[in-house]
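Request: Have a read of the protein record below and say how the chain folds.
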Amino acid sequence: MRKIVLGFVVLVSLLIVPATATAESVSGTVVVDGGSADGETVTIAPLGPGNDLVENATETTVENGSFSYEPVEGAITYFIELEHEGTTHYALVDDGEQPDFVLNDTIEGELVDENGTPISNATVSVTSKLGPEVTQLNTTDGSFTIGPVQPDRVYTLEIKANGATYERAVSTDDDAANTTFELPTPTTDRDALTLGGGQPVNHLLNVGPTQNGTGLFVVETVSVENTADRPFAGDVSFAVPSDAEVVTAMVGDERTSVSQTNGTATVETTITPQEPATINVYYRLEDQAFEKPVGYDVEQFAIQFAEYDLSQVEVSDNLVEADAPMPMVTSTGPLEADDQISVSITESNQSVASDQTNGGPGAGEFPLGLVSLGFVAIIAIGLAAYRYL
């Protein structure tokens, strides 16, 4: 639910129209301890059975501690967003249910290291149980106060300090909302990282055509787990083809720094303890063939192809066609880091090339927008199908 609702928050911000109250309007209330929310903005998004946006979201304002909105035919729930003094609050209510916001609690804390010394220059982001961000602040002396917030809620604190990211959960129905958070010094020991958590494999390449159809773009993904009792903050290396042009990298859904030297892409990462993480490197190749070391000792390795079928592909002998509903090859057995794998496209998909290069100024460029939307969707759907078949 959290990711689904967060997606609608982004969509809602693009599809807002003024609200007009009618005799059949639903009323909501806003109570602020020691203050008022009059004049603040409320955004209402009507959602259908599949959490789809039934109509454009509407905006209204708080007057005399209340607001109202008109029900939308076909909506079964409403995602409601209230902005107040630099914080944003959320409610998910059923059709006909009155939304009530009560802002009468605070989250107070102090960030310290393992010796009890306050940690300065930290960023604290607060998210609600529905997923979206409530607020973000910087602390110079390690202490912070966030509020007013809603009572009887669980909030997640994402704390960026010491070059790492920490997550802590606080509940406003107990004393945990006023506490000291000990942030252990992150480890840089790569031995703390193990391959794990990937589906269907821990090391995966996704290969597709560049915009002009003459080269390849590759998304190389490694799934790792941080086995330490503290965050990992350091570099993770990828063996890439010697002629690759590395474009960007991501850890989870966040872009991160990456450098490239002599066939190695080095990614700056921070990984929370005892949690899996997905690290992606995006690179472009001018030709439709490449050879590279695997880079890690793996039990199984896979390559998935977009816009190509396996009749157009030749691969090294240590890769075979997978029993999967999409074009995919997997390793014949465990591979070592120095083992070489190779891919060659023997027959280009010319229709893709002509569709995407009709005089466009970006012809031949790495299609990052395509990767972040359509290509990733293909990957997700394909891997899910492969996992359960």
Summary: The helical segments are 2-14, 350-356, 368-388. The radius of gyration is 25 Å. The longest strand covers residues 216-226.
